Amino acid sequence: MARALTLLGVAVVALAVFPEGVAACPVCFDSSDENRMAFIATTAFLSLLPLGMVAGAGLWLRKKTKERGDDPFDPNRPEP
Questions:
Q1: Pure H helices in the chain
Q2: Separation between Cα atoms, residue 49 and residue 63, nearest integer Å
Q3: Contact 27, 35 (CB under 8 A)
Q4: pLDDT tens digits, residue range 15-63?
Q5: CA–CA distance, 64 with 70 (Å, rounded to integer)
Q6: Helix, strand or coil for residue 50?
C-alpha cells in the first residue's frame, strides 16, 4: 500500500511540474489563433448537435401527432 501511495505521489508531482506533457492534443493548446478558434467552434458544434437532434425528434413527433388529430389524454375530461 505504501508503494502505491509513493508512486501516486510521484505521478502527481510530475504532472504538477510538467503540465504540458499531458496536453490532450497539439491543436488544443496551439498558439495560432485560427487553429484555436477552429477547435472551439468544433467543440461547440459537437456539444450542441445531440441537443438539436433530440429537439428535432421531439418537434417531429409533435407535428405527426397533431396531423393524426390525436388529443392528449386528459384525466379530468368526463366520459362521453
A1: 2-17, 33-68
A2: 21
A3: yes
A4: 777 766 666 666 556 667 787 788 889 989 999 999 999 999 999 998 9
A5: 9
A6: helix
